[in-house]
């Protein structure tokens, strides 16, 4: 599903954020991307999102070589990726429902079909009863779950999360992780960037450990 | 999540577009919603929007009013050529006596209101004064200029005046009879010059409208930066992201156009009275002609397009620069 082939990323000014990264994530796999801040986690996710381009090497996602993606193809490529942000990036000028519906509106879904999917996604994260509220009125755990609902509402084959539990207490974090595991269980490839080692180590999943832009190990926790 | 629920989600993992109602009608509904949403956003800030609309309205109303007034003036020209004077150029051999006789004959006619004479001497003096050829003329041995009789007809139609002109031309003392349209030509030249200047003014103000709307839309884009970034990250195309701003421009233009029409009609209404009085003095039933319905619709549509275009330029410049980082 995600294949990095000798990928390096240098920013203008010479800083090398990633160097010679090689790994392969299978469809339906759940993996953690970890390392200290500044180790290159965000850069790696940005490469997958096509927010940045690799300086050298190939990034292949869902069979598509991102170096060869044309500008106008990028939006359609991104529709196959659900993205969960650390700061959830919800829009406070509209309801929870409209926030979750955004990817479907963009993809041009029929409103009735969209409504069905939005409700299913909100139900999944346990917030169906808050669909008409403004997200600003929700707790940060709830906001993060709305962000997750938005990320999965169009059922993307790939789910990326950038420090999804960064602002949450351990109990809420565990809840969120449980959600990700469920998505992985139904065939969604999930990649979670997190430096919350205490949380990760309790979960039995593959870990990609980055250190100073290099991949130190792609170890698998004992399962 | 239960196993059953999990099964239900899985097959849809292959992303497809929903196939109930057509993609076209969905797109149409989407346009409709975005158009309404853009308008509501403008109405939610009535003061700021009204200010923009007023600026646009003034910039549109000014040249349009001028154009309208010029059109009316051209019509004045078309309507008033029945008062053309006739200039009778006398044969050089005509004596003062024969000229006086001719003047007397003509002034007795019922279809002539007024007659006056310009003697060769007067003509020469005037020519010397006005042409700057004074010294050249002094070198001439004889005065080359003929006497001229100016005839103001007491007629209303141009054909009658022309008949009079032909009749007067038959007089053996008259070498040539000319309809005096110089003032009309002058008026036409002035109107043409004014029209040219108005066109230039309209172009400049039109560019101004585009820039004003472009700048206002730029601010709207800045205000919705977060939304644009998120939209682009979840797969919004450039077209999708631009749409609300293009509609914003359209509404600014259309609203400004509507207000401009109101302004033009107010100006016309205000001028109606004084112009009717002025026309009354000249014994004319001339009245101002307004914009009319089809032209009003044209102005409205044009203003909307102008707004859309301004927004488009702004979107092209600023929206592409906002990329998720």
Can you walk me through this structure?
The complex is a heterodimer of chains A (223) and B (325). Chain A has 223 residues and is α/β, with parallel strands linked by helices. Chain A has a 6-stranded mixed sheet with strand order 6-7-8-3-9-10, with helices on both faces. A 4-stranded antiparallel sheet of chain A has the order 2-1-4-5, with helices on one face. In chain A, strand 9 and strand 10 form a beta hairpin. In chain A, helix 4 packs across helix 5. The two termini of chain B are 34 Å apart. Chain B is α+β, with helices and mostly antiparallel strands and 325 residues long. Chain B has 11 helices and 4 strands; from the N terminus they run αααβαβααβαβαααα. Chain B has a 4-stranded antiparallel sheet. At the A-B interface, helix 2, helix 3 and helix 4 of A face helix 2 and helix 9 of B.
Describe the structure concisely:
The complex is a heterodimer of chains A (about 220) and B (about 325). Chain A is of the alpha/beta class and about 220 residues long.
Helix content of chain B: 55-70%
Quaternary state of the chains: heterodimer
Number of strand elements of chain B: 4
Shape of chain A: globular
Distance between the termini of chain B: 34 Å
The number of helical runs of chain A is 7
**Strand numbers in spatial order across the main sheet of chain B:** 2-3-1-4
The helicity of chain A comes to 25-40%
H/E element sequence of chain A: EEEHEEHEHHHEHEHEE
Beta-strand residue fraction of chain A: 25-35%
Mean pLDDT score of chain A: 88
Low-confidence stretches of chain B: 1-20
